[in-house]
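Think of the structure tokens as a kind of shorthand, similar to the way a musician reads notation: each symbol stands for something richer, in this case the local conformation of the backbone. In the example below we present two proteins back to back. Begin with the first one, reading the sequence and then the tokens, and try to describe in your own words what changes along the chain.
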Amino acid sequence: MKKHKIVYGNTEIEFKIIKTARRKTSEIVIKYDDVFIRAPCSKSIYDIETLVKGKAGWILQILKENNGKKPEIMLPTYKQNTTLPYLGKNIGLRIVKDDADYLESLNDEFIIHYKNDTVKTIYEKWLFSISPTIFNLHIEKYSALLNVKPKKILIKKLKSRWGSTTFNGTINLNVNLIKAPVEVIEYVVLHEMGHLIEKNHSVMFWKLIQKYMSNYSEKAKWLKINGINLV
């Protein structure tokens, strides 16, 4: 893939362009120390370079934060003898042709039995089935500590957010969080529960989060580095 570059101050920013016919808007994706621009086929090089120049400060900040660190979580390929992420670990995967579709968790190994569904589908259905139990532990904890209760909890497969809180008190949580360590899941739950009290990311909001999780920034950083392999 050809590399392009722009100059920002005294720094060169290199990036790669991925064009697809289905895409309608451009998106900047930073993976470790690589910058990718996903763009519609109609976008010119000039337009893409203008986008990168406009976001150059942000791009350099993310690259600095990443500092070349590689994710701990491996991107699943859903093949025999690879791994699947669960609670911050890369769990070994064994695939068995069988007379039913289900996932068996045994001795730090996932055994996926398949008949009709794909390995990926079986794994994702299992994540949805187990996620309420894991999320509810943290929701109950912070409901008591913060003296607030969500109106409703919705678990969804999201691509661009780990969670969100609506003004009417509904909390949306990304099922892919179940792939992250328990303490990272807890941070996201606390973050969204905090929005039941402070609606915006104000100074008061971050003071609230720090009160109950002094090292929350470490959890947010883990998601920045590993998140691309979770969704």
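Once you have a description of the first chain, move to the second and do the same.
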Amino acid sequence: MCAAPIAACASVEAAGDELTVALGGDWRITGPRPAWEELRAGREPQRVTVRVGGVGKWDSSLLLFLFEVQQWCRMAGAYFDGEALPEKLRTMLGQLARSHETSVPFDRSQSFMETVGTATLQIWQKGREIAYFVGECTLSLVKLARQPHKFRWRDCLHEMQQCGAMALPIVSLISFLVGMTLAYTGALVLRQYGGDIYVADLVGVAMAREMGALMTAIVLAGRTGAAYAAHLGNMKANEEIDALSTLGISPVDFLVAPRLLALTLMMPLLSLYACCVGIVGGMAVAWSVLDILPVAFWVEMLTIVDLSDVLSGLVKAVTFGVIVGLAGCLRGLQADRSAAGVGQAATSAVVTAILFIIVADAVYAVVFDILGI
């Protein structure tokens, strides 16, 4: 004969401002379960600790009870201590909480120093994850240099087409408009001093050194970086990446390296193309607004723009390409195994890429100024 199931039960122990809840029995959605309001009995604890050592079989009934306790803690500003819960249960509780996100305030019972310490540990952990991923990608590229015949060149060529040739229309439009905007802005100031011709210098230097690479990188961060994150995040949700690892195939070698190499190779070419299109946009404004002929515009621009300006822009473009590729692939591999996780990974990839692009551009500005480039 089968033993009769033990009904779900809970005991409460109060110690000062802390309330310890010990759960036991079998928690089934078809059976009765304790109510949190009855267990609390009007008390207003500052800390609630939950232990499930005596729980037998359980289903969503236990999860709903814990969610009810956690939500009350958020509303009351109390600290919910679920460290004693099994890892699987904590994961499911976190997913349930994220799916029911509202304007409920977060826990504020932690002290300032504890909050700062927790944030510091999270930043340190994220930094380690980024460093580890960059190291894996570096080793993968070293392996490519040593054994190029084992690299998936077909995938790389496909990605080069997607992030290069397919991006030409949007890059052309953005670059042309940026060149026009620079020319209009420069004309507002320079024409007051009779220096209309120097609009060519402004547009040429700005596009070659800064705007060509920067605008192309931002466009690809929103277009290609997000696509990488969404694709890899969807593969992770479908357990395709786990299948590769089970077969002994490195996801970095199989999925990340072709995308990273393709973006690194195509980014300088797109940046150079964007510079040319931007200069044409500025030339069109100079001709139509300032009555500067294209030949005069071109000759004046060549007096200030030299090879160092072009090379500095290409160096930035290569760096930005690496950043966009790393950010997209990293966030894709870190995505949660859900549709919402894929969307969050794509958003995070764009934000991360743009942040590091701006930081890298500022660093290059300082370094180039020190070197006199």
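Compare your description with these statements about the second chain. Residues 158 and 262 are 9 Å apart (CA to CA).
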